[in-house]
Amino acid sequence: MSRLAHTLWNDKHPVIMIFFILLLGIAEILIVPPAWPLLNDSRKVTSVILMLLPYIFLYASANSDPGYITPENHPHQMTLYPYDFTIFHPGQECRTCHILKPARSKHCSICKRCISKLDHHCIFINNCVGYGNQHYFLLLLFFTATLITYATYIGFSILSNEIFKHLPNWTWRGKGYVWSQYFNIWAWALQEYTRIGGVTLLCLLTAPLVWGLLGYHFYLIWAGTTTNESMKWSDWAIEMADGYAFKRAIPSNRQKDTTIEPAWTRWPVESEQVVVRTEDGLPPIREGVVGVGEWERVWKLRDVENLYDLGFWDNLKDVFWPRYGVWHKKERKAEDARNNGRSNADSSATSSLRRK
Ligand SMILES: [Zn+2]
Ligand SMILES: [Zn+2]
């Protein structure tokens, strides 16, 4: 029993995903047979397409690589995002995978691997949501929400038509009826058509949850962050409010330590600030911290830049079309040319990162 509980809590298993599939499947088995003869052709086609899409994107989210970081792809993973020197600092090693953590990555204790741009581990898809499958996850949420909303609409529309057969002056707005009569009529329809009524009510109640989750993920994209990073940002907000956070400038021409951070990334911008916390609430005195000039105390999140926020559309593009070097081919070419001109130690930066 305790081993089972340990597995359910700590390991990958499809129990919740099976529950999700059963919930969808049983609701469909309940509502489709009685509703089907009452649908016109265009509604039949729409229903079939909408019922298939969540399964397709559930399969895609569950079976795609969320961005597993392996020793082989590590050099590539390092060049996806630069360190922001605020929530991601270079030189931190994953204790389990023994690799340098790329910016925006996190180790998932359930998948037992480091994941690129990890958002969260999702028990409904039995997989992490990360760089590699975030778009499938968003499409799964969108089409599940759309299906549930459409089912709510179709369900009430069928029930309203059935009421009309008994009450010829009936409209769904209930014109000519007082509130109590109106609700009694609907209650009668729900009882008379239990299967359609039950599933319709379930859809009505669950649709806001799925839309809410989708809305939350769009908010995260708008803010240029992930579920994982938003937790780090809220920790920072507390440190800042308490007066323990300081920032200072990072010059753009600084010399990078290419044994712990990539010489270049495909991201169009680099951090111009370093943000650190101190134990005593006094400005940092540590030697060797990146950046130049005086330390400035920061009180609010809005006083620091989020390097990973390029604006809503570019953030969205990064989720759906995360192509390599999509924004700044020119800059990358220039950077490559510069790297080629340097010593061998510099141009083999990625292989030294890998050794690390
Ligand atoms: Zn790891
Ligand atoms: Zn995971």
From TrEMBL:
<feature type="transmembrane region" description="Helical">
    <location>
        <begin position="136"/>
        <end position="159"/>
    </location>
</feature>
<keyword id="KW-1133">Transmembrane helix</keyword>
<keyword id="KW-0472">Membrane</keyword>
<keyword id="KW-0564">Palmitate</keyword>
<dbReference type="InterPro" id="IPR039859">
    <property type="entry name" value="PFA4/ZDH16/20/ERF2-like"/>
</dbReference>
<feature type="transmembrane region" description="Helical">
    <location>
        <begin position="199"/>
        <end position="222"/>
    </location>
</feature>
<dbReference type="Pfam" id="PF01529">
    <property type="entry name" value="DHHC"/>
</dbReference>
<keyword id="KW-0812">Transmembrane</keyword>
<keyword id="KW-0012">Acyltransferase</keyword>
<dbReference type="GO" id="GO:0019706">
    <property type="term" value="F:protein-cysteine S-palmitoyltransferase activity"/>
</dbReference>
<comment type="similarity">
    <text>Belongs to the DHHC palmitoyltransferase family.</text>
</comment>
<dbReference type="GO" id="GO:0005783">
    <property type="term" value="C:endoplasmic reticulum"/>
</dbReference>
<feature type="compositionally biased region" description="Polar residues">
    <location>
        <begin position="340"/>
        <end position="356"/>
    </location>
</feature>
<keyword id="KW-0449">Lipoprotein</keyword>
<feature type="domain" description="Palmitoyltransferase DHHC">
    <location>
        <begin position="89"/>
        <end position="233"/>
    </location>
</feature>
<dbReference type="GO" id="GO:0005794">
    <property type="term" value="C:Golgi apparatus"/>
</dbReference>
<feature type="region of interest" description="Disordered">
    <location>
        <begin position="332"/>
        <end position="356"/>
    </location>
</feature>
<feature type="transmembrane region" description="Helical">
    <location>
        <begin position="15"/>
        <end position="33"/>
    </location>
</feature>
<dbReference type="GO" id="GO:0016020">
    <property type="term" value="C:membrane"/>
</dbReference>
<dbReference type="GO" id="GO:0006612">
    <property type="term" value="P:protein targeting to membrane"/>
</dbReference>
<dbReference type="InterPro" id="IPR001594">
    <property type="entry name" value="Palmitoyltrfase_DHHC"/>
</dbReference>
<keyword id="KW-0808">Transferase</keyword>
<feature type="transmembrane region" description="Helical">
    <location>
        <begin position="45"/>
        <end position="62"/>
    </location>
</feature>
<protein>
    <recommendedName>
        <fullName>Palmitoyltransferase</fullName>
        <ecNumber>2.3.1.225</ecNumber>
    </recommendedName>
</protein>
